Amino acid sequence: MNAAKAGFSSWDLEAPIAAAIEALGWTEPTEIQREALPLARQGLNVIGQAITGSGKTAAFGIPILESCSPSGSPQAIVLCPTRELAVQVAEEMDSLQGDKGLSIQTVYGGTDLEKQAKKLDKGADIVVGTPGRVIDMTKRGHLKLGGIRLFCLDEADRMLDMGFFPDVLWIFEKTPNREQTMMFSATFPQEVLDAAEEFMVDPVHVMSDEMEVEIPEIEQYAIRVGRANKLWALGRIIAHMGEGDQMLIFANTKRMVDILSERLGKFGIRAIGLHGDLPQGKRERILNSFKGGGESIVVATDVAARGLDVDGITHVVNYDLSIDTESYVHRIGRTGRMGRKGEAWSFVTREDGRLIEKIASTWNLTIPFVDAPSLPEGMDRDPIGRRDDWEEVSDPFGMVTVKLTLGKSDSTKRALADWIAREARVPDIVIGEIAQGEDETHVEIHVDKVAYVIDVIKAREFNGRSLAPSIMGS
């Protein structure tokens, strides 16, 4: 029984890793870590069932970090279904290695191929990536899989859903010197179990009882807002904080935590950033100050927030929406504790629309879309000004629809298009579809030129009349 309740300090972890865990403020392992980590450290093949947010990255990450040495050649590979998850896993493993000096490289699509290739050519001890780009880098000769001893598959069920298994199999077959294989998944459909048989010899199955996630009884809201105006919306929410209120703001990356705390500071709002790269002493000071009420606003990554157990948090803000549904619930669970009132706000950009729907349907939540709060009584200007965000009102082709007070009897489409091109001195290609009604006309203008074109139209008259341009969809 005592072994089951053992803390990290009882496991005799490698010194740099033990120091990093202490710096992160972790004392008790989560259930999946308690079950899987000792088995994985013995070199056994492990199949773990655990949701994202339950600490599974450390469950496979710590044994991998302990087994690798800073040699510059790949010894372990972790495959993830998405680039976001790959970045998150790599960041957490980097935080957990402390000063061990391992090179952990991410390999994923949708970003500069040459830059990734150069980093790999300089040397990598651990590779975290998505299957497609891993294959690409292997075929191009930048990634050598022959020396891989540890092979880990994260979120295997999502890999299956996204059709990655043939790619996973290809990579697996290129790692003949494997000594250990681990697979983690929130669910185990039959196809994943079949794949596990193909991948693994005598695996040990471990399952976390933390599959049930408790949904806190708090007010949840979502605000549709473009990236350019997230800071403005955050300023509005902060303006409504009362004396003694505390806010935890979540960002998805360490870099965003730094940017956000710095930008808030420029607007005179004190916010402390918290992530795994901070020195232990500084981290502990921030944690203690937040717990004691000395700091009212902390910006953190999911990993850093794990060691943060503060009952006084009244506001949680998802500045970046979490990339998986479980993390959302873990985040909002930081407020409304001990029967206190709490509220959670999520900023939803146009790309995040499907993600917030998935979160709501997965957990059967009601997350109403609302406008950003109005300014409190007695405050006549925004703490952070609103900016024009043309990207948010443009369509997938980069066109913004502008409404003009002009009917179809007042002009032909061609005459209007020619007038705009001539007055604003823009090429015809900047002007898209024109739709005419009885008393208004809708003109598409490319996002790169729309602000300038609107200013020109406001300043000129068309056949002696003002066109009063306004934006559709804003």
UniProtKB/TrEMBL annotation:
Q: Which UniProt keywords apply?
A: ATP-binding, Helicase, Hydrolase, Nucleotide-binding
Any idea which GO molecular function terms this record carries? ATP binding; catalytic activity, acting on DNA; hydrolase activity; nucleic acid binding; RNA helicase activity
- The UniProt entry annotates the motif Q motif at 6-34
SUPFAM superfamilies reported for this sequence: P-loop containing nucleoside triphosphate hydrolases (SSF52540)
Query: Residue limits of the Helicase ATP-binding domain?
Result: 37-206
The family database entries (Gene3D superfamilies) matched by this protein are listed as: P-loop containing nucleotide triphosphate hydrolases (3.40.50.300)
- UniProt superkingdom: Archaea
Name of the protein in its database record: ATP-dependent RNA helicase
Q: Which residues form the Helicase C-terminal domain?
A: 217-380
Q: Name one Pfam family in it.
A: Helicase_C
InterPro entries given in the database record: DEAD/DEAH_box_helicase_dom (IPR011545), DEAD/DEAH_RhlB (IPR044742), DEAD_box_RNA_helicase (IPR050079), Helicase_ATP-bd (IPR014001), Helicase_C-like (IPR001650), P-loop_NTPase (IPR027417), RNA_helicase_DEAD_Q_motif (IPR014014)
Q: DEAD-box RNA helicase Q domain: which residues?
A: 6-34
Q: Which residues cross the membrane?
A: none
Give GO cellular component annotations, separated by semicolons.
cytosol
Q: Does the keyword Magnesium apply?
A: no
